[in-house]
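In the previous chapter we treated chains in isolation. Here, by contrast, the input contains two separate entities that must be folded as one system, with a combined length of 1601 residues.
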Amino acid sequence: MVAYFWFNFGYNNEIRILDDAKVQNVRVVDRFNNRQHIIGTIFLTDKHLIFVDPEGKRETWILHSLILSADKLPTTQQGCPLRVRTKHFFSIEFIIPKERDCVELHATLNQLKAESHEKLYCYLYQAPNYLEKIWDPFLLATEYMRMGVPNRDWKVEDSNSNFDMCDTYPPIIYVPMSTTKQMLIGSSKFRSRGRLPVLTYLHPNGASITRCSQPLSGFSARCLEDEQLLQSILKTNSHSSTMYIIDTRPRINAVANRAAGKGYENEDYYSNIQFKFCPIENIHVMRGSLQKVLDACEMKNPSMNQYLNALDSSSWLQHIKAVLDAAIFIARAIDIEKKNVLVHCSDGWDRTAQCCSLSSLLLCPYYRSIHGFRMLIEKEWLSFGHKFSDRCGHTRTSDNKEQSPVFLQFVEVVWQLTQIYPTAFEFNERFLISLHDHSHSCQYGNFVGNCEKDRLDLGVKERTYSYWNYILQNVNDFKNPLFRPQSTYASEVLLPTIHSQTLKFWMNMYHRFDGSILPKENIPNTLTHLIDHTAALNDHARLLEKRIRELRTILENANEQTNHSTTSLPEQDGSSSETEPSQTANKNLPPLSLSSDVESGINSDYSPSDRTSVSPPLNLQHQSSGEIDDIPTIERIAFELNSIALDWRSYQAPLHCTCSLPFDSAQRKYNCWRCGENFCIRCIEHGVRLPGLYSNSLAPVCKTCARSIKSSLSMFENSTPNKSNDQKQAEMKSSLSINDENKI
Amino acid sequence: MSRNFLEKSKIYLCPGKYCGYQNNSTNCGACQRGYRVNTESICQLCHETLSLYNFMYIVFMALLALSFHWYFINRLQKKKQREFTLVKQTILYFLSILEILLAFIFTLLTFPPIGKLTMNVCQVKLLSDFYPMFHNPIVNYRKKLRCSYEVVYPLQSAIFVLYTYASLIMLLLRPLFVSIIHQKFISASIYSALHFYPCLLILHALCGGFIYFSFPILTITSAIFLNAIHFTLIANGENNWISFIRKLCGNIQNWIIYLVHVILLLCGLISLTQFEDEYHLILLPTVFLPVFRDHLQSYPESIVNVTLHNVIITHKQSDGNYKELWIFYTNMDAIQPKFPMKTEFRSQLPLSPSMSSTYTIIVRLKTLETCYFDVSVLDDAIKLAESLDALITYTDGLNCDVTFLFPFCFPRDFEVIQDGWTAFSVESEFSRLQAISDEWRISDVNKNFAICETYPERLVVPKSITDEYLKRSAQFRSHGRFPLLCYLHKSSKSCIIRCAQPLIGSSVRRCKEDEGLVNAMLTQRHKKGWILDTRHANVVKSAQNKGGGCEPDQHYALWKRLHRHLDKHTVLQESFTKLMDACIDQSEKDRWLSKLDNSNWLLHVKEALTTACIVAQTIDCEETSVLIHGSDGWDTTLLVTSLAQILLDPDCRTITGFEALIEREWIQAGHPFRLRCSRSGFGRSTHGQESPLFTLFLDCTWQLLQQFACSFEFNDTLLIELFQHAYSSKFGTFIFNNEKEKLKYNGIKHTVSLWSYFNRPEILHTFLNPFYEPNLSVLWPSVAAQSIILWRSLYLRFYENQIPQREVWDEYLLIKGKEIQLRSYVNKLRQELLELERKCTEKTNMIKTEKDSVVTI
C-alpha cells in the first residue's frame, strides 16, 4: 500500500491545474507487493503533484517544495518509470506509458521547484481563516530574562545591531559583565565568521553554556582579546575554577582544520581550561549516513539480515548517539560539576546548535513544554543562524553539498529522549514530525533563510504565516497525553545513561508512508482518541450539570407556585397567553428531533411521548423566577443531548473514511463530536459550536452533522420566538459564526 | 570443577594436589603448618572455625581413649573384687573422665587461636587430605616435589596432643590417688593406659583419614553392638525380665556403661547428620558484607545466605529496613567469577583480606537478570562461586530429581479461587468444539499413557475413527504422537492438525490406518489439505534414512506438501545466547546492530511468524485444513500451531484464552519444558536439549501485541511473567516434561499451578490491557523485516531504567479510567435530567389544569 497524503499541507486551497499537466493511465508500483499496481491519473498544480486513482478513493498529494528528487529510471516494457522522492521520506514510483509524457513531467517537476527565495511556497500559501498572518514576536530578551540575564555577571551587548560584527548572530548578544567592546571585536575577528563566544544558557546554579565558532588559531596564532573573553566567561561562575571547552568535532577534523588556519584553542594560551573533543561527524558524513538509512528503508522485501546490516552500515544511530552523548556530557558538566562550558565546532551553527539546544533541553524542564521548545528553537537554531535554507535545500539553486540532516538529527535525538522519558515532554511525536516537515516545506516563513538577517531582508514576518501560530491553533493535536508536569522526570535535569541498545529506529519518521509496515493499532493514537473523548464528555457533563441545576430550581419554584397558585394567578395568566404560539409552533418539531435522534443513536429511554408534550409553563416559571437567563425547554435539552455522542466509534474499527479514503496509522483520525464516527481530516469541520457543550469552544464535527446542526439550529430558532431578546441575539450570533465557519 | 575456575582466572598453577606457593615466595612446595593450599595454588591461612563434624571427630578420639580406660578399670575389678570397692572404682572412673576432659580442653586451648576453646581448622575435602605424602607430584618425570604437610591441620596433630596431655595428666593424678588409698594394684590401670596410648597413636597415624570419614558409622554400630553385648552379659542366662531389670538397675556400673553407649550413639548420629542431602554442596552458608548489585543499583552491607533451594540476599535499604531477595538455583544460569588476579600480585594476596580490590562473582539468571556479588575475601568468593556452581549443576534438567525442586516445597501462600490444575480440562475444550462441529469425540485410548507418553490421557479424535485405528497410527508415528486436532476454525470448519513425523523410513512404509485418520479430519467441503513440514526438504531426507520422513504424495493423495524450515535446538539456543550477549554488551566499540544481526534471533521470529501467517491464510482464506509436524512434533510444531491460533481465534487473545492455549498447545501437548528451559541466554548447554522455543513463541506473541495493541486483553507483563515462570518458578506448571511425568511425581497434589496464582483478581489486574477492544477478525500482521523489532521490555528490562515506563503505564490506566468514569457520569446525568424533565412536565400539566379550572370559573 502506498500512503496517500499528509495532512499538514493545505489541500483546501484553491487548486490551479497547470495546462496540459495531466497524465493518464499512470501505474504506481507498490513496494511491498510487486503484482499489485494502482492505475490512475497525475495532475500537476502550481503547488502540488496529485495522483488520483480511478475510483477517486486515493489521492496522493505531493507538495513541490517537498520534492527532493524526481528521477527518470530506465524505460521498461510497461512504460517509463519516474521515481519521486520527498524530503519527508516518501518515495513513489510512477510508471508512465508514454516516454514523452514522462520526460515532460520530469522537466516540469524540476522547473516547478522554487529557484529563489522569493518564489518559495510560504509566499503563495493561503492558510485557512483561523490562521492569521500574526507573528507572535519572539523576543530574545524575554527568553534571557527568564534565565535571569542580565544579572551581575552577564550583560546585554547591542554592538551587533546592524549585523556588522557577525551577520549570522542576532542583533543583541549576551556577554560577561567584565568584557569591553574591544575584547568583543577582537575576539570576533579571531573566530571563524565572526562568531564570538556568547551566552546561550544559564543554569540556576550559575554555570552557563556559551557558544562560538572555531578560533582562527592555525598552528600558533593567538588572540589576547579572545583569551581575556574566555577568562571573563570563566569568572562568571564562582563554583569552579576551570571551564570546559568542548569541540564537537572528531580530533582528526580539528587537527586538519589547523592546516587551514583554523583549528582549536591551544591549552597553553588559555589558562584554566579543560579541552575535550566530542566526536560528532561533519555534515557530509551525516548526509551520506542518512542516504544509507533511506536506501535501507526503500529496500524491496529485504531479509532480516539485509535490513539490519543496511541499518548498521549506515551508522545513523551511532551518529545519533554521538550527538546525545555530547549533549549529556555538557549537561553533566553544568549540573554536576558546575562548570562553565564553551561549545564550538567548525562554524558553530550545526553541531554546536545541536549540542547546545539538547543540553539545554536536558537541563531545563521549561524547554520540554511546547512553548519552551519553541523558544529553544527560536534561540538556538533561528537566532544563532542555523542555515536552514542551505541545509534543507529550499531553493533549486542551493548547493547539494551544503544539504545535511542536522535539524533532523536534533529532532530525532529529542524523539529518542521522549522514548526514554515518555512523561517528561509536553509535545508528542506528531509535533516533532511536523516540525521536521515544515523545516523543509517552506509553508511557513519561520525556517526560510539562513539567519535572522536573511529573514529580515526577505520580509518573512510581513508576508508569511508563522508556524508557531499554526501549532498553537492546533495545539491539541500536538500535546503529549502522557505528559506529567509533576513527575520527577518532567521537573528535573535529565541525565540518562545511553548505551547503543537504548536507541531505537524511528519507524514513524522514516517508514511513515509504509502503512503496511507500521503497527496496525497503536497506543498513541488510541490515547489521543481517549483524550478527545474525555474533553468532549467533560464539557458536555458541565452543561448537563448546569441544566439539572436549572431544572431543580424551576421545580422548586413550581412547587412554591402551586402552593400559592391563587395569589400569583394574574401573573400566570398573562404569561400563559404569551406562550400559546410557541406551543403550537413546537408541535412541528418532534418529527425532526426524532429523525436526528435516530441518526445519532441517542439514549432510547428518552421516550417520544415526553417530547410531544410541550411545556410552555416552564418558560413561564422561568420568566417569573427571573434569575436564570437560559431557558431549558424540552426540545432544547433534546437538541443539546443530540449534539454530543456518548460513545465514540473505536479508533481501530473503520478502515475507510466515509469519503472512502483508506485510513492508515500515520493519519490522524478525527471523531465527530456529534455522531462519534471516525473521519479523515477532509471530512471533518473544525470549529462548529455545539449546543451540547458548556464552554463555547469550537468542536470538530463531520460535514453531515454540521449541516444537520445548522438546519436544526435555525429550525430551533424559528420555533422559539418567545426567547428573551439578548438570548436570541446570542443565538443569532452563534449561528452566524457557525455559518462563517461553514463557508471556510 | 575447581579446575574450571582456575582456567577462568588464568593463573600458573603448582603441580600436584598439595603443593602451593608459600607466602612471598615463588617456589612451589609444601605449605607451612596452619596453611592449606587453595584452588589458586596459594598457601592460605586456615581460619575456618571448628565445624561440628571436626569437633565430633576429636570428641570421638577422646571417647575412644576413655573407653579403653574404663575397660581396664573394669578388668581390675574382676581381679581384686574384695579390695576394690565401688567407691574407689567410681572415683577411678571419674578420674579418667577428668583426665580426658582436661586433656581435651587443653588441646583446644593450645591450638590457635590460643587461649580460646576453639580451633582454626583447614577444610577437609577428601580422604587424601590425610595422606598428602602419597600425592607428591613428579615434575617432568624427574624431580619429585615433596609437599607433605599437615593438610588437615590441626586434626592430625590435635589427636597426638590430646593423648599426650591425657597421659601426662594421668601420670600426675593416678599416683596421687594410689598414694592416698595405698592400694598398689590400682597402678595396674596406669600401666595398661601407658600401653594402649601408643597403640592408639599409631592407629591414628595410620588410619586417621579412614576414621575421620567413617567414625559416625563406627560409633553408631559399635555403640549398638557393645550395648547388646553388655545386655547379654548382664542377662547371663536370666530368662526373667524382672530379674534382668533388677540386675541392670542394681548395679551403678551397668548404668554408667549404658550411659556411655547412649552418648556414643548420639555422637555418631550428630556427626552423621552433617552429611545430609545437598548440604555438602554448600561450602559456605553465609557470606557477610559483600556488595550486592545489579545493573542499576548496588546494595552494600548485604548478607548472602546459601540455603537448600535459593540464595537469600538481605540488604539494607535506604530507609534502614532490610529487604530480602531470593534467587532460586533453578533460576541461575551461569556463574562467572571475575577475580582480578595477576601473577605479580599473587604473593601479596593471601594475607590481605581487607584489600580494596574485590572479587566479583557475576551471577547470570535465567530470567536475564544479572547480579554481582563483590566479595572481599578471595576464599569466600571461591567457595561461594563453587557452591553456586555445584548447586546449579545439581538442579540441571537431566540429572535432577524433580521432587527436589522448589515447587515441591513451596507452601501455597494465597487463596486459590480457581484451581489451575483443573481449569483447562479436555472436556471444556471439547464442549467449545462441540458448538462448531459434532464430528468429534473424546477417546480414552491413551489411558495410562498406553500408546503415547507425551499426550494427555483423554484426547479429542474424529468420531468416525475407532481406537484401534488410533493405536495403529500411533505405531506409525514417531513417539506415538498420532495426528491430533488442535484447532477448528469457526467459519470455514477447516482445522489445524499436529502430529510427529511418520516413520516411513527409507523403504517408504505405509500405514492405511494413519491415512484414514488423517483423511477423516478433512472437511467435507474442501477435500484437500496441506501438510506443513517445519523442516527443510534436505533435513527430511536425512531423517528418512534414520527411519523418519514425511508423508509421501502417493499415499496421501489428498494432501499437498509444503516445507518451511524453522530452526530449533542448538541453532536456536545459540541464537538466543548471542542475542543476550549483544544485549548485555555495554562496550562502546562494538556495533550493537551488527551483533543483533549476527544473533539471527529476529530472523527466527520473522520465520516463525511468517509460517504461522501461512497457516492462518490457508485456514481462513483458502478454507483448507493444515497438518503440521516437524520431527517429534513437540517443538516447532507447537510454535506454529499456537501462533496460528492466536492469529485466527479471538478467544486466544483474552487472558484465559491465552492461558488455555499454553496449557493445551504447550503443556498438554508435551513440550519438554524442564529440558528446554534448563538453560537460558547465558548458560552453556550441558545436554544439547535446551532450546528457547517457548521464549520464541512469547516473542512472536509480543510482536503481534505490538502491532495490534488493542486486540489483546493482556499486556506484555503477562508475557514477561510467563517467560520468567517457564525458566524458574515456584509453581509446578512448567517443571514437568509431559503429562505422564506430572502424574508420576504427583505434581497436581504436591505443587501449585501457576494458573491458580495468575487467576486471582489482584494479579489478573496487572495483566489487563486498558485499551482492549475485542477484535473478532483474523489478525494479519506485517512480517516485513522492518516490522520485526526487538522486545526491549523483556531482553533489556534489567539494563534500562524502567521507572519512566511504569509511569507511562500508570498514566494509561488513569486516562482510560477517566474516560470510562466520565462516560458513565454523563450517562447518569442524562438520565437524571430526563427524569427532572418528566417531573417538570407533570408539574406544569398540573398547574395548567389547575389554571384552566381557575379560568373556567
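Chain A touches chain B through 91 residues (CB under 8 Å). The longest strand of chain A covers residues 17-29. Compare these points with the single-chain example from earlier in the chapter.
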